[in-house]
């Protein structure tokens, strides 16, 4: 690793001002960033750890009934405490392994927007709102392609608000070596329609499978899931071809619909 | 350099660390607690698992500065006060849950974290919990049996028998 200083502010305001320094970067649970630093793929001058900021940790229910998760909340805490949204709690409880879940945070996962990460699928399928120190961003506007998001330099995710669906499930076809999703599909059924978000498959990162949304909004059953989307633009690597991933998108969507509760 | 103070295996310790000093480095090189192993240094193998404030974490993927003020427990803190092996450690010996022993500190720390939250896990729960702990020798069966035994439950027969 290159050398850098670490700061541990205890409020969002102090973190934001620390992040104003040249080449400063936020540190969440470090489960993605520390390996990146070890490979010397990042060279911050100062890391601003968000781990000591109590106000961005925890799970609660908002006035509008949405489930609100602080940006610094670990996957393990979400798995334990998001019982109001069981599909989301189950997703969090199946990220990586227990030690990763004890450190990794929802804010870090959404800020990183890995094309195979689990939380982006949940946020997009739920039409979640990503709240930062300066504004609220709708999930539909937030994800902007592989590792790209609407976040500005130095902007911190302080909370994520998930409208709780009538029924939902996340089905992850796990890539056993990395424990990320080879393909993961999150299906959420709301009173006004069904949303389907796919991770792991597209070269553009997480996306909504609108054909499936339309079909499932009129008939919420596994049989209604359309034929697999085209493999064009799907990730192709040693773990699976684009066509294979496209096939998995339909299979995992069917499984998610069948499992939705 | 920043000064950090933490409790490690019940003793208060302090040291000067750089921003990029990992918790493993602080434990192994500064405190000379070399029981915590580094297998991969890429967050994959779990040989470096220790407890921070009671939770299992990979100490190769946490900075020492972030453990300032924390309560840390390593494999050196697992034995009973009189020096005899703890129930989990003894079960690893009794059930041949180790061969080269490289993964063992992490396995024992993960097992202890599991049994704290879930004192009577099923075999499937044990295997699931050990997802982040890799062993190149045992084939896992005897590790699972050791943990089942340490939890006071019947020890399952395994496929290899
Ligand atoms: C072995 C292993 C298995 C894994 N398996 C999975 C898996 O199955 N599914 C999955 O989805 N993920 C998986 N992950 C990734 C894991 O979920 C990470 O915790 C997560 O991607 C990053 O979160 P973090 O809090 O650790 O962020 P960090 O690593 O600290 O930071 C990641 C990025 O986000 C930025 N950042 C951090 N917090 C914030 C914030 N609040 N606001 C704005 N920016 C922020 C940082 O500056 C950095 O750029 C795995 C990781 C490992 C090591
Ligand atoms: S050395 Fe930390 S996970 Fe392998
Ligand atoms: S006993 Fe050798 S790696 Fe597990």
UniProtKB/TrEMBL annotation, chain B:
Keywords, comma-separated and alphabetical: 2Fe-2S, Iron, Iron-sulfur, Metal-binding, Oxidoreductase
Domain 2Fe-2S ferredoxin-type span(s) in chain numbering: 2-78
InterPro entries given in the database record: 2Fe-2S-bd (IPR002888), 2Fe-2S-bd_dom_sf (IPR036884), 2Fe-2S_ferredoxin-like_sf (IPR036010), 2Fe-2S_ferredoxin-type (IPR001041), Beta-grasp_dom_sf (IPR012675), Diverse_Oxidoreductases (IPR051452)
A Pfam family assignment: Fer2
Top-rank taxon, per record: Bacteria
GO molecular function, one term: 2 iron, 2 sulfur cluster binding
Record-given protein name: Carbon monoxide dehydrogenase
Organismal lineage: Bacteria, Pseudomonadati, Pseudomonadota, Alphaproteobacteria, Rhodobacterales
């Amino acid at each position: 690793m290159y050398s850098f200083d670490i700061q541990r502010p205890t409020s969002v305001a102090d973190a934001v001002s620390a992040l104003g320094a040249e080449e400063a970067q936020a540190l969440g649970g470090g489960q993605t960033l520390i390996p990146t630093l070890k490979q010397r793929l990042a060279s911050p001058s100062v890391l601003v750890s968000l781990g000591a900021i109590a106000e961005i940790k925890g799970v609660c229910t908002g006035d509008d009934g949405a489930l609100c998760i602080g940006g610094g909340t670990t996957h393990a805490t979400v798995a334990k405490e998001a019982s109001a949204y069981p599909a989301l709690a189950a997703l969090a409880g199946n990220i990586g392994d227990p030690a990763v879940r004890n450190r990794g945070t929802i804010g870090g996962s959404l800020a990183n927007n890995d094309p195979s990460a689990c939380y982006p699928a949940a946020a997009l399928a739920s039409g979640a709102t990503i709240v930062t120190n300066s504004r609220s961003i709708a999930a539909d506007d937030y994800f902007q392609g592989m590792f790209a998001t609407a976040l500005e330099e130095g902007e911190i995710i302080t909370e994520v608000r998930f409208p709780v669906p009538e029924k939902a499930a996340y089905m992850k076809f796990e890539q056993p070596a990395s424990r990320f999703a080879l393909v993961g599909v999150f299906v959420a059924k709301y009173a006004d329609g069904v949303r389907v978000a796919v991770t792991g498959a597209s070269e553009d990162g997480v996306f909504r499978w609108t054909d499936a949304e339309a079909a499932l909004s009129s008939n919420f059953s596994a049989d209604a899931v359309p034929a697999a989307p085209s493999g064009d633009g799907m990730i192709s690597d040693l773990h699976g071809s684009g066509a294979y991933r496209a096939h998995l998108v339909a299979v995992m969507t069917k499984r998610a619909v069948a499992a939705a509760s | 350099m920043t000064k950090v103070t933490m409790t490690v295996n019940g003793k208060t310790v302090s040291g000067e660390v750089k921003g990029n000093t990992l918790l493993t480095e602080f434990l192994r090189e500064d405190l000379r607690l070399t029981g915590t192993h580094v297998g991969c240094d890429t967050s994959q193998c779990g040989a470096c698992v220790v407890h921070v404030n009671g939770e299992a974490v990979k100490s190769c993927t946490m900075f020492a500065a972030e453990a300032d003020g924390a309560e840390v427990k390593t494999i050196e803190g697992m034995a009973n006060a009189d020096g005899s092996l703890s129930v989990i450690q003894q079960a690893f010996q009794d059930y041949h849950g180790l061969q080269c022993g490289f993964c063992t500190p992490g396995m024992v720390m993960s097992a202890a974290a599991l049994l704290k939250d879930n004192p009577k896990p099923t075999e499937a729960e044990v295997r699931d919990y050990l997802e982040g702990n890799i062993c190149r020798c045992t084939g896992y069966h005897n590790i699972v049996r050791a943990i089942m035994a340490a939890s006071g439950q019947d020890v399952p027969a395994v496929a290899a028998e």
